[in-house]
Every structure is written in C-alpha cells, then in structure tokens.
Design a protein that fits this description.
This protein has 452 residues and is an all-alpha fold. It has 19 helices and two strands.
Length: 452
C-alpha cells in the first residue's frame, strides 16, 4: 500500500472548481466581517445625535466590541482543535451575523453595547480559523496570494458598508445599515455544505475516509487510486500550545508578530471607528467623510492585490516593513493638506498600510509556524492584536474630546504605524517553518544535481 503525505498533495494541486468555490465562500464570510466592523464607525455620528452620548462613550462601545473579538479569538481557536475548523467557521458566522442584525433593534446604548459585544465573539473567532483553513487548502506556490485575496473580502465588505451608509443614513436612519449585516444567515446552509473540514483535523481524529474524500475534491486524480495510506501528522507534544510558539528560537518573532498585529489593529480600529468624525473635524461634511472611508477600503484592496503576489517573490519583510512606514508618513501628512485629491491619496495609502498590510501579515503568521500550531499562532496573534482594537476607539475618542488640532490626532495614530514597522524588522524569518521547508527543498535539489 502506497503511503502519501496529504499536505504534499494539496501543495502541488492545481487551481480548479474546488478552490474557486472555497475561495468564494471564505471571501463572503470575511466580507461581512469587514462590513460589520465599519458600519459602527459610519453610524457613530447618528448614534451620538440620537442617544445624546459623548465621543468617549461612543469610543468605549467600540472598545467593548473589540474586547468581544479578543475573547472570541481565544475561545474559538481553542474549540477548533476539539470540534474542527469547519464547525467553528459556520458557528461564528451565525453569531456575528445574527447579533449584527439585532443591533438594528437596540433602543439605547446599553442594549446596543451588549449585542455588539456578542457579535464581537463571532467576529473574533471566525477570522483566525478562516486563515488557518485557507492556508491549509491553498497550493503552496500561490498560498500567500490566495489568503491575501480572501482577506480582500474584508475591504470589499467595508467598502460596501461605507457606500451603503452614505445612501441609507441620511434617508432611512442607522437601523437598516445593521439589518443588512444579517444577510449571512441566508447562506450559512451553503457554507456548511461547501466548506470541507481540515484534513489534519480529520486524520488526527482517525477519520481517514473523510480525509480521502476531501483530498479527492482538491485533486480529482487522487480519487482514481484509493489503495493508499496517509502519512499521519506527528502526535502533538504535551504542554501548552501557546508556550510552543516560543520554542525553537521563535520567541522573538512571536512577540514581534504580536506587537505588529497590535499596531495594525490600532490603525484599523482608529480609522474604521473614527475616520468620518476625524475628517468632519478637518472641515469635511458627513457625506464626504464617508467617501474617505470608501477610498480607504479601495486602497486596502489595491494594496493587497498589488503587494500580495510581490510577497511571494521578494519576501514578507521587504514588503511589510516599508508599508508600515509609508502608512505613518501618510497619516502624519493628511492633517496638513487642504486638497481633497491629496487627502484621498493619503487615505488610500493608509488603507493599504493598515487593512491591506494586515491581510498579508495574516498569511505571514500562518506560514511561519508548523501546521500543528497554526490555529494557536494565528489566534493568539490576533487576540493580542485585538487589544489594539480595544484601546484605539477609546484612545481616539479621548483625543477628540480634547479638541486638539487635527494634525495632532493623526500624528498620534501614526505612531502605531512606526511601532509596527519597527516590530516587523525584528521578525526572524530564518526560524520560520516556510523558510526551513524552502531550505530542505533546495538541499534535495542540490543532492539530485550532484548525483547526476
């Protein structure tokens, strides 16, 4: 009986209908994740006016939601190892879409904050598991590009949120904007049917036939030969999975990933929650300010599509480090310009250097660690990053309450981009799993060349 490694089959597979449908559904899930995050920032001016709440209270509600996402990232990544990533993805999608829909029926800030926190549990849990599953099912040669493309869905959803809010808020109010967040409830049955379970998880649970069926969908030629035996993944070593992230010379990189993710989330949540208000403070009206939110998401999409493939060619750090610093420069300059055209350019760069950068950083983290600890690595990194999402809305709310010049507010946010760039510099690529695999392949090629 022939033995094969299922991960090698996936690595060498060609893109066909399985991958296209898988990418489509993952893209849709992440799109509504992005929609959910941005609609709060778009609705903040309306909520403040209707309920008479201060900028600090509005920022605090955004921070409470981020607390929910941090908790969700930790809980659902731990659960994924027990019940599977597929179940976690549809369960968390159900949670965030249902409670986003219910947010539109809140009659005051207290009820609104409660349902937003619960929605946050789902938002925090879905993203790391989508990253882990997308990394597992993507062919190696285009892995970064596929994961980055899926996370363009976040920006597409955020863009739709900005455009929808711009149309609905002045005429229908803020409630319908949140009701639209319940659309994923309609496609969850298709999600459950179309998304396969992790092959590694199935083998770990002894479900070899189920694993073979999944591999047959990924590589149709595989189904012709059933007389095979899978090389099972190595048994997990005892001990805390988080502690293992610091073993084998990965400690420095793990900490730097956490800090860079923290910085990226400070940028993302600061801009998604407060960009309309910040631009209104700079002299723009609400309609124009929501247009800036749309431009930011377009910048994130273009940045991901342009720089994602570039990462596969020249490496993660050579792209991500300069991008962080460019975001800091753009944030520092935007408060000094009176030109709407230049402001749009700066906002687009900020989108690429925050949401777009995080899309690529997700792929970096997921490939840096071995498959057995991938969910833990991505989940813990994003959970720490979510602390930035907790701090940012309240921090910027306090800045706004101090009535400082717009330049000072943008400069304070820019400091997070500088911190993220510095942290990314200290990530040690040579200790990454993908780097070690590359060296092993090169050594084999050298050996074969010498043998010839």
């Amino acid at each position: 009986m022939k033995k094969i490694n299922p991960m090698n089959v996936i690595d060498r597979s060609s893109i066909h209908s399985f991958h296209i449908w898988f990418i489509f559904w993952m893209f849709m899930v992440i799109a509504f994740d992005g929609y959910d995050v941005v609609i709060y920032g778009a609705a903040v001016p309306s909520l403040m006016k209707e309920w008479g709440i201060s900028v600090v209270t509005a920022g605090a509600i955004g921070s409470y939601t981020a607390i929910g996402t941090a908790i969700g990232a930790i809980i659902f990544c731990m659960l994924a190892d027990k019940i599977g990533r597929k179940k976690i993805i549809w369960l968390t999608t159900l949670i965030f879409s249902l409670f986003t829909f219910l947010s539109g029926f809140a009659n005051g800030p207290l009820m609104f904050a409660i349902v937003r926190v619960i929605a946050g549990f789902g938002l925090g849990g879905v993203m790391p598991n989508v990253i882990a599953l997308a990394t597992e099912f993507s062919p190696k040669r285009v892995r970064t590009a596929i994961v980055s493309f899926i996370f363009c869905g976040y920006s597409v959803g955020a863009l739709v949120a900005a455009l929808t809010s711009r149309s609905l808020l002045p005429t229908a109010g803020w409630e319908p904007v949140f009701w639209l967040g319940g659309v994923p409830l309609l496609f969850i049955p298709f999600l459950m049917k179309s998304i396969p379970e992790s092959v590694g998880f199935l083998l770990e649970k002894g479900k070899e036939e189920d694993a073979k069926n999944v591999i047959s969908k990924i590589d149709p030629n595989f189904g012709e030969e059933r007389a095979i035996e899978f090389v099972k993944p190595a048994a997990k070593k005892p001990g805390s999975p988080v502690v293992k992230l610091f073993e084998e010379k990965r400690a420095t990189s793990t900490i730097m990933f956490w800090i860079s993710c923290f910085s990226a989330f400070v940028l993302i949540y600061s801009m998604n929650t407060w960009l309309p208000r910040l631009m209104m403070q700079s002299g723009y009206d609400l309609s124009s300010s929501l247009a800036f939110t749309a431009v930011m998401q377009l910048g994130a999409i273009v940045g991901t599509l342009v720089f994602g493939p570039l990462v596969d060619k020249i490496g993660f750090k050579k792209v991500l480090v300069p991008l962080f610093f460019c975001g800091g420069i753009a944030l520092s300059l935007i408060g000094f310009t009176n030109s709407m055209f230049l402001a749009f350019i700066f906002i687009a760069v900020i989108g690429a250097a925050s949401v777009g950068l995080q899309n690529m950083s997700n792929a970096f983290v997921s490939q840096y660690y071995p498959s057995g600890m991938r969910s833990t690595a991505v989940g813990s990194t994003m959970a720490f990053g979510r602390v930035g999402g907790i701090v940012a809305p309240t921090f910027v709310g306090v800045l706004l309450s101090m009535n400082l010049m717009p330049q000072y507010n943008f400069a304070a946010i820019a400091s997070a981009a500088v911190l993220g760039g510095i942290a990314m510099i200290f990530v040690q690529e040579k200790h990454g799993n993908y780097y070690k695999e590359k060296e092993q392949i090169e050594e084999k090629d050298e050996t074969l060349t010498i043998a010839k």
